[in-house]
Amino acid sequence: MAASPLVAPPSSLTSPLLKRQPSQQTTTNSSYNGTPNLGTAAPLSAAKAILGQPQETPSTPPSLTLDPIEQMNELEKRKYVKGRKLGEGTYANVYLGHSRSDPSVLVAIKKIKVQAQYNDGLAPDAVRELKHLQELRGHPNIIQLYSVFSSKDQNLNLVLEYLPLGDLEMLIKDVDRVRYGAGDIKAWMGMLTRAVWFCHENYVLHRDIKPNNLLIAADGEVKLADFGLARGFADPGYRMTATVITRWYRPPELLFGARHYSGAVDIWSVGMVFAELIIRTAYLPGNTEVEQIALICKQIGTPTEDNWPGVAQLGQYTVPSEVTPVWGKEAYMSRFGAVGSEGVDLLVKTLALDPKKRITAREMLEHKWWRTEPKPTRKEDLPKKEGGEEKMGADLKRRNGVLEEDRGSKVARKLDFGAMK
């Protein structure tokens, strides 16, 4: 695992059940599909399969009749007190909680409901979220998973970091009451870029980066959340689904049906969030996949073999009847110039049509924009908005791994450029 350049989570909150298992170790098998095979295990056994055996048997077990795993589960459950409900959904309920030993330490307890249609009672996206959160523990810009335990009703409970200031979407949309500038955007983008860098260094694709998956802590730190669509990518030969990433933030290679892709898909999403922070509205809000492609062609440029060698090999690509030249930096300046020339340069590099030409997260962190004026705003001084606790509950109760859109027909079809006029 790549070491975080920043701080680790409080050791007092971290469960001994959360044994780290590097993504690259679990993805080297070409048959791996991003979801551990748990068979017919109950939620407690599922957690054990993902998180590993406890390192030691508790010295004061709750009951001598319980096996070591059940004893550890009971001890973890007793560490926290569940309070009022913050959000309720068909997939999960979210509660405010606190540490039993220190009531001032607040947490969010996400109770994932047993799903009868799955053999082990847990949806694959819940398993993925649990797996990747425990792999990525320790980075300050990724939501922290402190503990996991099974309740009496066999539902799985994730004890997560308490993030009471809502998400970036709240701030972007409240144009009348929330004012922010280039220094604030630079601070938020730095936090997001560091989170994505850490994911990619550890061979994890997030695959659903967007403003309402960027939650805000009490100190102003932005945290990347919702890993229900995430998967490891250490095996470059494995075919992956193209139906990931919410449409407005989805890159052209996925819209054209690519089954082999890299961290570049996340970088495109980061670029779309960057653009949205600047103009305070979604940059390319397509209502359908065809319309999304049309907007990309109009606002960024038409993908062709000249600017993207190999694009014609993608299953849902057709040769366009009209070609819009790829926008240069100058074309972006009039609308995105608030972040300066270097900021626009970085934005353009995140939105390269050809994923092989797209900037990487590491290269983003080395870009000159971070060293230009204004400097990033201190996290404590970033704009904040009331009512974030309820928004956190709404964000966390969403069904992870399900896109907020129509998934489209299962029948393969070509994107008709002629229909985009």
Automatic annotation (TrEMBL):
The record's region (Disordered) falls at 1-40, 370-407
Q: In what ranges is there compositional bias, type Polar residues?
A: 11-38
Family annotation (InterPro entries): CDK (IPR050108), CDK7 (IPR037770), Kinase-like_dom_sf (IPR011009), Prot_kinase_dom (IPR000719), Protein_kinase_ATP_BS (IPR017441), Ser/Thr_kinase_AS (IPR008271)
Q: Name one GO cellular component term.
A: cytoplasm
Entry GO MF terms: ATP binding; cyclin-dependent protein serine/threonine kinase activity; RNA polymerase II CTD heptapeptide repeat kinase activity
Q: Which residues form the Protein kinase domain?
A: 80-370
Location of the active site: D208 (proton acceptor)
What the entry lists under CDD domains is as follows: STKc_CDK7
Which reactions appear under catalytic activity for this entry? L-seryl-[protein] + ATP = O-phospho-L-seryl-[protein] + ADP + H(+); L-threonyl-[protein] + ATP = O-phospho-L-threonyl-[protein] + ADP + H(+)
* Residues binding ATP, per UniProt: L86, G87, E88, G89, T90, Y91, A92, N93, V94, K110, K111
Q: Which residues form a coiled coil?
A: none
| The UniProt record lists the keyword Ion transport | no
Give the family, as the similarity comment puts it.
Answer: Belongs to the protein kinase superfamily. CMGC Ser/Thr protein kinase family. CDC2/CDKX subfamily.
What is the name of the protein in this document? Kinase-like domain-containing protein
Q: Which organism is it from?
A: Triangularia verruculosa
